[in-house]
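About this split. The held-out portion is used to measure sequence recovery: a designer receives only the structure tokens and must propose an amino acid at every position. Recovery is the fraction of positions where the proposal matches the reference. Here is one held-out target exactly as it appears in the evaluation file.
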């Protein structure tokens, strides 16, 4: 007669889940033992929020649900930030929390909180198991809900006595379903092509929906055939490299001023798998002309018209839509328009290049990333944090391959780049991984440096250390002229902290030392932290934020 823990482990195997992210606790002992005995890999970390962040990253990288196990009470509450981050990023996370025994229900016992209700606002679905027999059914349903439509996070609470209990009559587990392709109609395709062909200044914006749909080749075929200008954002970064003649970089006006200038002139915008959200100024006049025509392709009908009226809404799978829209015949030339976009890009990059020539100490962030552009391996995978230093890098370093540009998501959960890079390296053994962060962001999950060392993950961490919360410091200085509140930190030797955990690292203060330090880091074969002393300097992102407040 199987226990609930054994049923849980067997269900994971049937669902194709082979990796479980966790932090051990009393409510989990039976199920963790069962999972290991079933042959699953257990990735144990140092903070429950880090656990859920890493699993979120794992789900994004593999394009299928990932599983976390945390203990109840504070373990559950700690995990909620990662759960909310995954849900807003449309990442299929199955977040399971243990809890005290149901035999003690209704009494004031240890670590009792209403976990299901707490998780509801941050998930697509939240539920609790009431008996052992329900465990396979609930886990199968959780997988389906997380994976269907616009993907997202789900939560299950499973009390400890149900993991330990036994049953002969387990409910059947719903099997995973293949996502329907939902192709567009012929009329929709014809209308979209007519609008694009008639445009004088068309642009394409590709978002994470292209990645989730497995539409990399479809996007490449469409762009190569039509020669339409393409901007990419979120997990579409690198699907076509930034060096492609039709690719003009980040579709983020806060990072890419060439995108700002170009999108302000566009007369037709094809949005593929991307919400028209804050990143695109809600489709408003700060970024787009009043009469610009939007064609939006998305699998979620609730997205259409949320921010602005659309010329056309296509509720369909991005991959099949792109395949249907790729013309067999010649496309109207738009070389004059592309030349104008090239001029915008050249002008913006020239300004960044000039800033990158500043080699005085403390180092300007632009000079750091100008050096890193040459020093980092060409096939490096990025885990990006938030903050002023990091935004300079997002503006200056190119995206060159699919699945290599891991960002925080709409929640903007600074610090999560560290647990994210754990998943990124686990998913890509043998490939170079770099984490770009600031000294403020690094502090959130500092103990996960030990996780990197324990799992022998040779991630190279580059910390821009300006002794403060750089972005907020710049925003406050705009308000006050000079003084700041709660923005200053010590110039901590984070490389020494990494060494204390068993990794390696060094501090860099001179630009000439940075390239050799990067070479040493990737040659070391161990987690390596480069603590770069930089000056505070308003990034393009912060300048965009300040301009928006005026």
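Reference sequence for scoring:
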């Amino acid at each position: 007669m199987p226990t609930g823990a054994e049923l849980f482990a067997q269900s994971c195997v049937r669902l194709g889940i082979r990796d479980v992210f966790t932090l051990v606790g009393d409510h989990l002992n039976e199920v963790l033992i069962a999972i290991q005995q079933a042959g699953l890999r257990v990735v144990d970390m140092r903070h429950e929020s880090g656990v859920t962040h890493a699993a979120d990253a794992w789900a994004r990288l593999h394009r299928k649900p990932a599983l976390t196990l945390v203990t109840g009470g504070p373990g559950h509450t700690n995990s909620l930030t990662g759960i909310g981050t995954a849900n807003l990023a449309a990442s299929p996370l199955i977040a399971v929390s243990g809890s005290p025994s149901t035999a003690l229900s209704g009494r004031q016992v240890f670590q009792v909180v209403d976990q299901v209700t707490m998780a509801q606002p941050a998930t697509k679905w939240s539920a609790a198991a009431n008996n052992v027999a329900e465990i396979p059914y609930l886990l199968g349903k959780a997988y389906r809900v997380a994976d269907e439509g616009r993907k997202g996070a789900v939560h299950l609470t499973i009390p400890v006595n149900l993991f330990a209990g036994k049953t002969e009559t387990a409910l059947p587990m719903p099997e995973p379903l293949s996502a329907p392709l939902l192709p567009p109609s012929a009329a929709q395709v014809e209308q979209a092509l007519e609008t694009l062909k008639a445009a004088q200044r068309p642009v394409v914006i590709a978002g994470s929906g292209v990645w989730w749909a497995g539409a990399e080749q479809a996007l490449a075929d469409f762009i190569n055939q039509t020669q339409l200008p393409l901007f990419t954002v979120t997990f579409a970064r690198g699907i076509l490299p930034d060096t492609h003649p039709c690719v003009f970089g980040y579709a983020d006006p806060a990072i890419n001023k060439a995108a700002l200038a170009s999108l302000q002139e566009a007369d037709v915008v094809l949005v593929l798998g991307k919400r028209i959200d804050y990143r695109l100024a809600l489709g408003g006049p700060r970024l787009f002309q009043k009469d610009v025509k939007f064609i939006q392709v998305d699998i979620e009908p609730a997205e259409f018209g949320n921010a602005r009226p659309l010329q056309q809404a296509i509720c369909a799978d991005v991959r099949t839509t792109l395949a249907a829209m790729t013309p067999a015949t010649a496309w109207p030339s738009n070389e004059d328009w592309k030349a104008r976009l090239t001029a915008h890009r050249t002008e913006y990059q020239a300004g960044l290049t000039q800033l990158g020539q500043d080699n005085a100490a403390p180092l300007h962030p632009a000079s750091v990333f100008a050096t890193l552009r040459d020093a980092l391996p060409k096939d490096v995978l990025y885990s990006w944090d938030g903050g002023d230093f990091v935004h300079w890098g997002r503006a200056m370093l190119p995206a060159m391959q699919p699945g290599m540009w891991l960002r925080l998501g709409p929640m903007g959960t600074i610090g999560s780049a560290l647990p994210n890079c754990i998943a990124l390296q686990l998913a890509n053994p043998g490939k170079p991984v770099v984490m770009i962060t600031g000294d403020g962001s690094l502090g959130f999950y500092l103990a996960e440096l030990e996780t990197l060392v324990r799992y022998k993950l040779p991630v190279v961490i580059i910390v821009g250390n300006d002794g403060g919360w750089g972005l907020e410091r710049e925003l406050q200085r705009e308000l006050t002229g000079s003084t700041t509140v709660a923005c200053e930190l010590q110039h901590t030797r984070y490389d020494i902290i990494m060494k204390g955990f068993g990794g390696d690292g060094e501090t860099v203060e001179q630009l000439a030392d940075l390239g050799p330090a990067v070479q040493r880091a990737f040659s070391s074969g161990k987690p390596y932290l480069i603590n770069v002393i930089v000056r505070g300097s308003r990034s393009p992102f912060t300048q965009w934020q300040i301009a928006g407040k005026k």
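Annotator remark: The radius of gyration is 24 Å.
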